[in-house]
Specification:
By secondary structure, the chain is an all-alpha fold. It contains six helices and no strands.
């Protein structure tokens, strides 16, 4: 599906649309979760494909440069051969052959500068393309390392998220706070009940009860003393 979309609207626009779909489904890249890693993986695959295409293009350039270079070197050797033929014909007194060979030397000399310029230009293009390919491959390796780090970071985030959930579900601070609140409520209720009990007691009744207790105690003491005195009297 993604490849078909990239083919229809282009790679950059396709990735933008896919990112928009993720946003519509409530899973934006900025969330830093699983979707972020998946988008990074998709982008890395796209970069790998681009680097592979660049490498193929550079290989084509190198092949064309090598052919042009070989063609130029062949022309140089060909001119040297014509020069040798002209010298040989000249020594042998064959003026026609010498002139024919020398005319070929002149014709070749005229085209060699153009061929040399094309070869040099092709060499520059090839070297520039090689440098670009080298840089892109280096960037790709860096992105691979970044992706690996992102995956590790995502796993750590998931672990921390799980720890946070456990801490939230088993919040000791919350339980301690609730216990202190309950303890304070019980103590306040106890103080309230004691105060109510003291306020509900009639002072007059309490005084009367105290007096009655004192009277009873005095009577008990008096009778015990009388009993003790009766035991001490002599018998007839």
């Amino acid at each position: 599906m993604k490849k078909a979309l990239y083919w229809l609207v282009g790679e950059k626009a396709g990735r933008t649309i896919v990112g928009g779909w993720n946003w519509l489904w409530g899973i934006p890249v900025e969330s830093g979760g699983r979707v972020s890693v998946e988008v990074a993986e998709e982008s890395l695959r796209a970069m790998q494909e681009s680097v592979q295409k660049l490498a193929a293009g550079v290989a084509t350039q190198v092949a064309a440069y090598e052919r042009a270079k070989q063609k130029y070197e062949a022309k140089v050797k060909e001119m040297q051969t014509f020069e040798s033929q002209a010298m040989t014909a000249q020594r042998n007194g064959n003026q026609d052959a010498a002139r024919l060979a020398m005319s070929k030397v002149i014709q070749t000399e005229q085209i060699l500068p153009q061929l040399e310029a094309q070869v040099l230009q092709a060499e520059k293009f090839v070297e520039a393309s090689k440098d670009k390919l080298k840089r892109e491959r280096q960037k790709l390796e860096e992105y691979k390392t970044d992706l690996s780090n992102m995956k590790d970071m995502q796993e750590i985030n998931q672990a921390l998220g799980a720890i946070t959930k456990v801490n939230d579900s088993l919040s000791i601070d919350s339980a301690r706070s609730q216990f202190e609140q309950a303890k304070g409520a019980v103590e306040r209720r106890n103080l309230k009940e004691k105060a109510l009990a003291e306020l509900s007691e009639d002072p007059t009744e309490k005084l009367q009860a105290d007096l009655e207790n004192m009277t009873v105690d005095d009577e008990v003491t008096r009778r015990l003393q009388r009993l003790e005195n009766s035991k001490q009297l002599p018998s007839d």
